[in-house]
Each structure stands twice: as C-alpha cells, then as structure tokens.
Amino acid sequence: MAAPSTLHPSSTPHATERSPLLDHESSNVIEDVETRIPRNHSDVTLAQSPGTLKLLLIMSSCWFGCFLAALDSTIVATLGAPIATSFQSFTLLSWIAASYLIANAAFTPLSGKLTDIFGRRAGLISCNALFFTGNLICGLAKTPEVMIFGRVIQGLGGGGINSISTFIASDLIPLRQRGLWQGIGNLCWGLGSGLGGVYGGWINDLMGWRWAFLIQCPCIAISAVLVFFNVHIPVKEKDVSRIKRVDFLGSFLLVASLVLLLMGLNSGGNTVPWSHPLVISSIIASVVTLCIFVYVEDQVAPEPIIPVRLLLNRTVAAACLTNWFQSMAQYGILYYVPIYFQVNGMSATRAGARLVPQAFGTAIGGMLAGYGMRITGRYYALMMSSEASRLMALILIAVTLVPGSPMWPPFIYLFITGTSYTVMLVITLLALIAAVDHEHQAVITSASYACRATGSTIGITIASAVFQNILKSELWRTFGDQPGAADEIGRIRDSVDEIKSLPIGWYPGVLDSYVTAFRSVWWTCAGLAVLGMVSSAFMREHKLHATLERK
C-alpha cells in the first residue's frame, strides 16, 4: 500500500493484480528471472499517483530547472572558443566542459540517497541554489581557475536538478505511463541542451560571454520558488542518522579517477609527449583509482552509489554501457561541430544555429520513444532501429562535412543524432527501472545519470585529445620548416580567431589541418557509437507495468 500523501490520488482506475499488461501480451517478453533483483516492497514508502493536472504542475516546476541545467551543459559548445581565447588557452576548452560534467558525475549518484533522507523538495531547492551560485561565479570569473571552479559548482547543482526531477517522476508515475512523461521531460531537457549553443553564441555576439551565465541567475531563482510551492513528496527515510551510510567515499574515488584520466589525456601529445611521466602516471593512477572504486562499491560501502551486484543483471549492464558510449559520441559531436563552423568563418551565433536541428531532434526523440512504449509496452526494436540510424548519421557527418560541401545535409544528420540520442536515454532509463525492484529505483537512476555524465566527460576529453594531437601533427608537418613556426602554431592552437590573421600563404594549409583534425573527431565519435550499438543489443525486454505497485 502507498503511504498517505498530501497529493490527490488519480481518478484513473488501476489495473488489478490479475489484469494483463497488454491484451495481446505474448510470452516473448523476457523477465530475466535468473539475474533479476529480488522484489521486496516492505521497506519502501510509495507516494500516491496524483491527478493529471496536479502531476503536470509538479513536473513542470521540476522541468523548468532541468531546461536551465541542460542549457548550461552545452552552453560552452559555442562559448568555449571565446572563453578560451579570452584566457589565451584553447586547451582550456575541455576543462571548462568536463569540469561541469565531472561535478555532475560526482553528485548525481549521491542525490538519490540524500533526497531519500532529507526530501526531494529540499534537495531540489538546494541544487537550484548551487546552480545559481555557479552561474554567478562563471559570469564574474577573472582567471581560468575561478572559471573552472564556477563550472564545478554549476555541475553539482545542474546534476542534482536533473536527477532529482527524475526521482520525483519515479515516485509519482507508473512505468507504463512513465515513458510518455519522461519524454515530455526530455523535451524540456532536449530543448535546453540543443539551444545551449545557440543561446551562448547569440549572447556572446550581443553582450559578451559573461552575460550568458549572469542572465540565467534570475531564472534559476524563479525555478527554486516554483519548487518550493509546488513540490511536496513524502520523505522516504526520516532517520537522518542514515547519512552515515551515504557513499561519499565512492563518489570521491569516481571523481578522482575521472580527473586523473582527464589530466593524462589532455596533457598527452598536447603540452607534453605521450611518453612523459605525467601522462603515464596520471592514466595508471586513474585505472588504479577506478579499481579501488569498484572494490569499495562491492565490499565496503553499505549503500554504494553504483551497486556492483546490480550490474550482474544483463539489462542493467547493457543499458549503462549503451548510455556511456553514446554519451561519449554525442558530446564529442556537440562540442566540436560549432567550432568547425567557427573555423570556417561563421560567427558564434551562426555556428550555434547549426545545432538547432539537433535541438529539435533531441526534443521530440524522447516524446516519440515515450509514446511508442506507452502504446506497445515494448522498447527493444525501437532501440535497435534508433541506434542504427544514429550510426549512419555519424558516418555521413564524417564523410561529408568538409569545406565547400552543401550546407543542408548536416542539418538532417544532426537532427537524426539528436532524435536517436534522446530515444536512447528514455529507453535505457525505462529498461533500467523495469529491471530492478522499486527500492532500487533511485540508485539505478543515479547510476544511469552517472553513466551519462562520465560518458560525456570522457567523450569530450577523447575528442579534445584527438583534435589537439591531430591538429598539432598536421600543422607541424605542413609548416614545421617555416620561420617562426613554433610561435604561430602555438597561437593557432590557443585561439580559433588566429585563423583570421595568419601569415601570407598559411591559410589553405591551416584550414586543411583543421579539417583533418575535425574528421578524426567525427570518426572517433562514430566508433564510440558502434560500441554503444553493440552494448544495446544485449538488453532484454522487460514488462513496463501500469501501476506504481507494478501489478
């Protein structure tokens, strides 16, 4: 039975224990019984499902913050070059992007258990406060270090807003209807994610990059007010002493592993040779720290942020890996497509506008997936067809995106990548939740967001390493024997604006070097998408129940 709640129960009758999920349900819906987590609802407090209008009000209050957080996750896609140029360090781009995503990865797994203890509303308001503070710091930053610190604070708040909003949806919406509601949520997230580059470029050209962060602060305050008045979810665990069981050590180890990996990949072939002790020691330390993290999660943490035993479930492991690899591919494309167009002479606004089709695709992909799953109760076939179309679009980007090519094909390809990405996000999240018991929903949702955040971070880092190393190699191969080559190549790699003031005769060679570097990034992202598609093939079909009680 659901615990009493201030929320009004839905007037829609629930299916009984004996009524079928689908009238045409057949035996080929696999339950994965041998690895399924045991069902035990005795210790879980379930909120009652509210009426549609009340639910819309609650979720809209959450989704407004999700839109702003998504906007910030991609805003440096077009602001990265101006910010890096402002601080005279183009290699700063990956740190500006990754610091936000690493903070996401750090806090997202903790947010489930913390909000179980202190409440969803308190957690969501606190995350809005962090998000506000981070934007303020970024807007006022005078040094790269302060800028990165501000991005970390933003990431803590933004990651919490996204994950806690998803927990609230899990608390209130049955799985069978969840796909459609998650699709609406992804519509907000997709619009924010897709429009981040457009918004950042437009504000940069109009007022300067700092205002892109500062203008968000009043909107974030409104988000916090909406949550305060509209979100009232029963606290699941009222014993505050349970905070001792929160896996802070695991979160620290995960972040340490990511930072060490980022340090090694960013330095290798860029500031120091790949054989340099800094690179080797950073990567080795990252692997060792990751191994310690796995040990802590399996043997030490009383309530791990990523319970290793859940990963023994085939669907859970496959969905997490799919999310991980596809997020790598998505963010590699997302951050380097605008830079490609800026190198080809477009303003930040026009370069950001090239991401609009991806924004629309990202917005409607979740809705399509949610509606499809609500109608059919199934997701595997939709997942595989979406992954195949995504891979084809990435290959076409790698083959056709060159100077002088028609401008309209990339719009189609980016639309497909955006659509298929959110289809993947909705399906993997629903598959994860369906594969585990209700009491594991928050932690498995956190694991899903952690995979997205770590995948995004590693994807940008890999794309940056590939881009910088290929660009450096091509520039030295072409201009290494020219007078003053070292200084000029350094300036080209530190500022995209340097292409406007190159020495006579350098432009064609520099442009060719950039194109080769970009194409290497596109093919790398396509390779990551292949790994994601292979991972998704191992997912199994689970029932999407029609009630919160999973009857």
TrEMBL record:
Q: Where in the cell is it found?
A: Endomembrane system
InterPro entries tied to this protein = MFS (IPR011701), MFS_dom (IPR020846), MFS_trans_sf (IPR036259)
Give the residue ranges for region: Disordered: 1-23
Superkingdom of source: Eukaryota
Q: Name one GO molecular function term.
A: basic amino acid transmembrane transporter activity
What region holds the Major facilitator superfamily (MFS) profile domain?
58-544
Q: Which UniProt keywords apply?
A: Membrane, Transmembrane, Transmembrane helix, Transport
| Topology class, membrane | Multi-pass membrane protein
Can you quote a single GO CC term? endomembrane system
Q: From the record, give the transmembrane residue ranges.
A: 55-80, 92-110, 122-142, 180-199, 211-233, 245-265, 277-296, 316-337, 357-376, 388-405, 411-437, 449-471, 521-539
Please name the Pfam families in this protein's record.
Answer: MFS_1
Q: Which PANTHER family match?
A: MAJOR FACILITATOR SUPERFAMILY (PTHR23501), VACUOLAR BASIC AMINO ACID TRANSPORTER 4 (PTHR23501:SF191)
State the name under which the record lists this protein. Answer: MFS multidrug transporter
Organism whose genome encodes this protein: Pseudovirgaria hyperparasitica
